[in-house]
Amino acid sequence: MSEFRATALRPSDELWPQCLTERFGKEAPSMLYVIGSLALLASRRIALFCSVKTPGDAILRTYDAARHMRDAGVTVISGFHSPIEKECLRILLRGKQPIIICPARAIEAMRIPTECQASFDAGRILFLSPFTKKPTRVTKDSAFVRNKLVAALADEAYIAHISPGGQTERIAHMLKQWQVPVISSS
Fold first, then answer.
1. How confident is the model at residue 46 (pLDDT cuts 50, 70, 90)?
2. Which residues lie below 8 Å from residue 16, measured CB to CB, with a gap of 6+?
3. Which helix (H) or strand (E) holds 174?
4. pTM here?
């Protein structure tokens, strides 16, 4: 695994995603930390959300959706943290489309995972995080902050399953409020 230093991206920077400022208002992050090609932020992005507790039929539809996104060359943004999201990442890594990975932790001096290295070297992967030096491990709170960021950066969203009262339901409400089109496998 190669180690890289994260670059800070500020709201005043030309490549800052204006949708963050528009959707979050005063709550927008003051900085993002990135490793990889910032040019990937300029493309149309579809967010991928898959909770840990997802029914089997929705999982199969999600894998099919990931293959479709890969084959269509769509830029996919996600935390790629849940087991289903990790499998979707493996599917996407077999393609040529851009991928934006948003860990729910700080990425300062992050090591690029071996399975992502070739795609990263090809300029197809951007790692993006709102966290500076902490947390160094994923927490429930940092995962929710990350998912809000992914939702705010999305032009469209794919949600594998929405459990009533869960965090994915909260994200779905935000997407609706921001008028981001949502595709659901449920």
1. very high
2. 9, 10, 32
3. helix 167-177
4. 0.94
